[in-house]
Amino acid sequence: MMSERTLFEKYGGFSKVSKIVMAFYDTLLDSDDIGPFFDDIDMSRMVDHQTKFISSVLGGPASYSDNQLRQFHTHLKIEDAHFNELKTVLEATLVDHGFDPDDILAVMQAIETRRNLVVG
Amino acid sequence: MSIEAINEQLLRAIGVGVALLDRKTLKFNFHNDTFEEWFGNPDETTTLQDMFAELDIDELNAGLRENRRFTTETKFKKKRRTMVIALDFTAAHEKQREIAVLVCQNITRIRELESMIDSYSTMVERNTREIKREKEQVEKLLLNLMPRSVYEEYKTFGVVTPQLYDPVSVLMLDFIGFSEKVTTLDPGVTVTELNDIYSAFDRIGEQFGCERIKTVGDAYVTVAGVPDPTPDHAKSVANAAIRFVRYLERRNASHPHQWQCRIGLATGSVIGSVVGIQKYVYDIFGPAVHLATQLQNFSSPMEISVQDEMARSLNDLFEMTDQGARMIPGFSEQPVWRLLDNRKTPAGRAV
After folding, report:
1. What predicted TM-score, i.e. pTM, was given to this entire model?
2. Would you tell me how many other CB atoms lie within 10 Å of the CB of residue A91?
3. Which of helix, strand or coil describes residue A41?
4. Which CATH superfamily is domain A9-118 in?
5. Which residue among A49, B40, B228, B288 is buried most deeply as judged by most CB within 10 Å?
6. A–B CB contacts, 8 A cutoff, strictly below
7. Secondary structure (3-state) at B335
8. Mind giving me the DSSP string for B195-212?
9. Cβ–Cβ below 8 Å for A14 and B120
10. Measured between beta carbons, which residues in chain A are less than 8 angstroms from residue B124?
């Protein structure tokens, strides 16, 4: 039985996804809306976080349970506007890296279902 | 423009930070734009230590003295990004003056990429461990379905070549009134009971060199001589059969549910192979299997019927009684023997 190909595989595995991670990381740090959440976070932890985030979003070798996601974000004062901004930034990054609109839509929908775990 | 002027302009504009220091005072004689962008603008009174508070000056001096070079790293925040800069000092002379050339490379990206590789490899290594564990589980399951040597062949070639094993001995066992039991007993109880009994049979069989092939409902099939040939195949199944009966008798004495078995033993050839592609199972076929099934039908409760050819090879070791000639479908009429437990025969010798 062939298992379904993940976006992670479709877009070239880690060698390509690593570029998305770095681009996303750069944009996040520059963003004045959500960048401040990372002000006091050590570089290696921040990179680790983004690597796992992008990997899990694309179906790569990381996945988080709803409980974990809630736990990670519970001490942060994340509002809907922040969440929207993250989606915008990620969408732009995926567009820059040649993702098909359908795939971007699927990623955005997957992220949207987790909004209530992160916001509030 | 003179060559010197061009050089200076180049030095100012490149993406590498450059500064020239007096070796003795470690004050700045020159710095370029990139250096200034990263670390600020040192004037003639600023020392190296002023700019890099965490720098170990003794270490630097020792390095320059012994190797004429010294390398270290410094970090600072630019907006919220952690910048990592490699500092490379080289001792040099300029018109008889001792100076130190400081070259600063931005290695932020390298450090970020290293962190990403760390993160990714940790994930992949964890997944690899999980896959390995799962693979071991699958292997364990498959080893329950087929002998190890057959499994190895299957793993290596993806197929199993049917093998003729000759001679081997087959033991067939079923339970009296199983169909009635299934309808009257709770299904969970039936499964637990069979599981208990079959596990005991497996252990006993293993002791005597038998390889259990399968169970189908109340039918239990085990064989000696597959996949590794053994001259004692008949003795192995005979010994196992006697212990199966002993085990059930002892179990019945203390359990609420009673199990009465019938056993048939036969010697001959079988073909062993994996059958099926998706739902594969290791199975044996052939005259010995057929004969053992027929002989099992001749057995009364808790009795063991033995085929004539096999009985002859067991003569010296086991007690048997002649049951007379029987017609076996597909075979000629032949004598059938009953295998007795020496321990229980009146004239029995102690085992």
Report:
1. 0.67
2. 16
3. coil
4. Globins (1.10.490.10)
5. B288
6. 53
7. strand
8. HHHHHHHHHHHHHTT-EE
9. yes
10. 61
Please check whether the domain covering B161-340 is classified as CATH 3.30.70.1230: yes
**Can you give the pLDDT at residue A66?**
85
Q: Give domain limits for chain A.
A: 9-118
**Residue A99 pLDDT greater than 60, yes or no:** yes
Question: CB B80 to CB A29 under 8 A?
Answer: yes
- What pLDDT was estimated at residue B201? 97
Q: Is B118 on the interface with A (CB under 8 A)?
A: yes
B3-106 homologous superfamily: PAS domain (3.30.450.20)
CB B84 within 8 A of CB A47: no
Contact A52 B79 (CB under 8 A): no
Pairing of strands B303-307, B261-275: parallel
Residue B107 to residue A27: CA distance in whole angstroms? 19
Closest of A77, A79, A96, A78 to residue A24, by C-alpha: A96
Of the candidates A41, A51, A61, A49, the one whose C-alpha atom is nearest the C-alpha of residue A118 is A49
Note whether A62 contacts B123, CB cutoff 8 Å.
yes
Locate CATH 3.30.450.20 in chain B: 3-106
A23 CA to chain B: closest CA distance, Å?
11
* Confidence label for B4 from pLDDT (cuts 50, 70 and 90): confident
pLDDT higher at A62 or B106: B106
Q: Which residues pair with B92 in a beta bridge?
A: B99
- What residues of chain A lie within 8 A of the CB of B85, using their CB? none
Contact criterion met (CB < 8 Å) for B115 and A14: no
Instruction: Compute the average pLDDT of residues B21-43.
Output: 93
Chain A closest-CA separation from residue B141 CA (Å): 19
